[in-house]
Amino acid sequence: MTANLPPQYDPKATEAKWQKYWEDNQTFKADPEAGGEPYCVVIPPPNVTGSLHMGHAFEETLIDVLVRYHRMTGRNTLWLPGTDHASIAVQTILERQLKAEGKTRHDLGREKFLERAWEWKAESGNTITNQLRSLGVSVDWSRERFTMDEGLSAAVLEAFVRLYDEGLIYRGNYLVNWCPASQSAVSDLEVDQQEVEGHLWHFRYPLTDGSGYLEVATTRPETMLGDTGVAVNPQDDRYKHLIGKTVTLPIVNREIPIIADEFVDPTFGTGCVKVTPAHDPNDFEMGKRHNLPFINIMNKDGSLNENAGEFQGQDRFVARKNVVQRLENDGVLVKIEDYKHTVPYSERGKVAVEPLISTQWFVKIDPLSQRALEALDQSNSPVFVPDRWTKVYRDWLVKLKDWCISRQLWWGHQIPAWYAVSETQGEITDTTPFIVAKTEAEAKEKATAKFGDDVQLARDPDVLDTWFSSGLWPFSTLGWPDETKDLEFYYPTTTLVTGFDIIFFWVARMTMMAGHFTEKMPFDTVYIHGLVLDENGQKMSKSKNNGIDPLLLIGKYGTDALRYTLVKEVVGAGQNIRMEYDRKTDESKSVEASRNFTNKLWNAARFVMMNLEGQTPQQLGSPSGGGGLELCDRWILSRYYQVVQQSRNCLENYGLGEAAKGLYEFIWGDFCDWYIELVKSRLQQDAEQSSKKVAQQTFAFVLEGILKLLHPFMPHITEEIWHTLTQTGDDQCLALQAYPEANASLIDADLEQQFELLFGTIRTIRNLRADADIKPSVKVTAILQSESEKERQIISDGGVYIQDLAKVENLTVTASLDAESPLGKGGQGGSIAGVVGTVQVLIPLAGVVDLAALRAKLEKKLSKVEAEIKHTAARLTNQKFVDKATPDVVQGARDALAEAEKQAEILRDRLKLF
After folding, report:
1. What angle do CA 431, 226, 263 make, to 5 degrees?
2. Which residues fall within 8 angstroms of residue 214, CB to CB, at 6 or more apart?
3. Which of 335, 355, 416, 640 lies most in the core, judged by the most C-beta atoms within 10 Å?
4. Alpha-carbon gap, residue 565 to 594, rounded angstroms
5. pLDDT in tens, 803-848
6. Cα distance between residue 61 and residue 68, in whole Å
């Protein structure tokens, strides 16, 4: 029975079918016992709250191309999937739900709140992973992990306790970034610096001795209530005589010192700066250097506290207006300037961050970052692609400060510290002694030994920053701290694929944690990809509402089409790509072009299979390099092996876009447009059998090779065609076949160059036929002249292809033309001529077309174009039109005039031939 494909390709049905097949059959289940060379990738875990956006689609497609390729090259491959628990995001969702019910989390209590969180995770938390399945990612779903599953939670406990025991985790007062919206500390890396149009308020601080005043300026006037000093540069001659004196703080009437500090820039503002150690990171350091008091004026919800006096209870921004008004009333406000500056915003809470003194848990970064720096400087580990990100990564490691890891939330990994509250009247205070342990029982045992049998313990209510658990991801997901077979075989992982925007958030955290706990960098290579920009080249964001839904495009064009578009657009590793998109119609020309490519491949495969007489590539056998191969067979095999070599080189060196484009050009151009046409005559019923057999062998061999080469990019359609072509049962699949290898002996660059001349000649004859309006069914005479013996030999050898594809009945190849020939007369005498390289092409028209009618037709067309030129030129010389019309309309008229003038020139050249 002859196997063949349906007339139309149905991506929706095909893609769902193979996604189910791969998962049901555990096609991508890894086996460390199988040995071989490992290739391991851990997925950058998307937030459990997330849904698939274009950035996810881009990143996962890039990873899948690499993973599928390396699997097909024979490596023992593991792509491990999973999600992050996203503390702040999940808690925000749940608290919003509770607010709608008129409740807070405190009404429920911690236990009930967490029950509700886990219920939400069970019902809604798998949305993102199910959407990832629609991309056809070749992950090992049997190893799916969640940052709060049992194994990863054990890893977090182990890491925390070990770091604490080693003196690398401590609890203390420190100035942190405080998010009043989520009422939690956020790390430097969770802060988004936004440029805003603000103000700079200038006001006077009177010298206590009454001899004058100092003028200071600030963007946050409400913080002056917490000022404990005014600083000047010690080299600033304007203020040297005032150092050591005091000023009286307006409103508060607190006497504060004038200090000298090198940090102050004498050229900025007045050269005097107010010092608020409890509410500014630079002032915090100055306060420590000069032993200034730290006065906190703010509550955790962003309102002012009892230290703010009359402004107590007011929201920070309300207090700002009222403080300014009071300063003006008191006559110390000098001026208000418009001022553009950057303000740190909480990425999660979406509000301005407040620097706030708070008791938190911290990781000492220096020992961890030094180990990561040593690996980079001594072993160039990990390797960054593109290399330019190496310096960015290194610079970040150098300037990292101690990492605040505690968050005032309930959803997350609760800090494994128990306070002996019986020592501090039942309350957790900054001085309450504590025990760090993996379990409450262990903590109780230690506390009893230290404080006696009556000790009462309360666990720290805070949770760990999500990046703490994500920092362990490459090895905790493989079983650490247990010595598992997965950890032994697949760790360190091979490649991390991620965006440049989380080098600081995540990559550095992973290298530091891995270096400390495993003494190895967690991955060999970090491939940094760019962004998917919208149709206007803008970064997609929720605030701009300019996102493009990948699921919508998948529904319209198919997964393979979207995948191929995303990869093919990448020019150079790490570059941003722009997604063509029409928001009115939800259509994308670039994804549509890739969908057309799937249709082209489908139709080409159907044609091939219809001409194999039910035989598979295996039954036909591979075409050999022997005498049975004809010229075009040798050419397509040479081109095929060139592309195999190119694809391998590109994929090994992260040139994914280049590999995709090379395959597109080969499949659409060389195979579909040329080879299929070249061999059609050899596949007819009455064709010579040995020639037909070789054509079938070559056809089947190259098509199967194409499917293997294209599979990492378009896994679904290639799997479907391959099964039909090879008539393979469900016990095998293309995803596990060997990737093609180049056969250097069949690569013939000289032959490929010869075919470029043949194709150029065919195109020239086809164009001349079109110019002369020669009907497709009419065969012509063609005279090809070249002084080059090599060119004449190439044309003669490929004469049958020229005659077949250009509809030439009589073909003459000559070194020169006598003076009496039509071409020798300069193209006169009813002939049309063209040139390809140094080959001149002549088609006599007598008896082929009605010359008089053709001339009349060309003259009529020229007359119409000239009239258009005259009309458009008149519009453009009309100043009223130019002044009133929009720039787009004027430019459109200019473009139309240029196009018409070009057409007129072509028509005049054609008329010269008659």
Report:
1. 95
2. 204, 205, 207, 230, 239, 242, 247, 258, 270, 272
3. 640
4. 6
5. 999 999 999 999 987 654 554 444 445 788 888 888 889 899 877 8
6. 10
